[in-house]
Give the backbone structure.
Amino acid sequence: MDSQVAEEFQKQKGYDLKPYIPRFFTGRLTDEAQRARADYYDVWSGIFRGSFFGVQADWCARNNLEYLVHLNHEENHDGLVRSEGDYFRDNRYVQVPGIDN
């Protein structure tokens, strides 16, 4: 796990994520481990939104372009969460959202 994610996780959620990570891959999660996994995706999604979509949106704004994005896996929530995080949060910076039809 990236140290930035671990630090941001601790800052936002108030506990250490590292002890829970191995449990994410066991197949059976305790309620506590499920909460840690949900918290992880919440933190990671926020980081991804700013460092990926936010950077691109800023560039488009500086260059007088509309920002059009098609998120991967928008038709499959589980796939979307793993690849890009929260659909609506990611689209916060998008001026022209695109989807599969």
